[in-house]
Design brief:
With about 100 residues, this protein is of the alpha/beta class. The protein has one domain: Spore Coat Polysaccharide Biosynthesis Protein SpsA, Chain A (Alpha-Beta Complex). The chain has four helices and four strands, in the order αβαβαβαβ. Strands 3-2-1-4 form a four-stranded parallel β-sheet. β1, α2 and β2 form a beta-alpha-beta unit. The longest helix is centred in the middle third of the chain and has 11 residues.
Length: about 100
């Protein structure tokens, strides 16, 4: 059983899973994550999918995941999301009852 599945069994499942595909977003990802984290609604998780970034995006996301371990999960995609059906991959990983992209 993976780390993701163990975490969701140990804690209450969130109502909402927010899916963020991360590919070379170092100039924008902090603004995106700060915007999500500032919402008054708190029953959510943020799924950060590493889509093979070659800039500092994943380093920034890792910092957020360490600061907000109850909200952020980083997962690496085995293939670019634009090659896949974009909702199947995050749907397999989400813990929330509702998936938001």
């Amino acid at each position: 059983m993976g780390r993701r599945k163990r975490r969701m069994q140990d804690a209450k499942r969130p109502l909402l899973s927010i899916f963020v595909s991360v590919y070379n977003l170092e100039n924008y990802i902090e603004e995106c994550l700060d915007s999500i984290l500032q919402q008054p609604f708190q029953d959510y998780e943020i799924l950060l999918f590493d889509n093979g970034s070659i800039d500092r995006s994943i380093e920034i996301c890792t910092g957020y995941a360490q600061r907000y371990p109850d909200k952020s999960v980083i997962t690496s995609c085995l293939f670019p999301l634009w090659l896949a059906v974009p909702t199947i991959w995050p749907a397999q990983e989400c813990g929330g009852a509702i998936l938001c992209r």
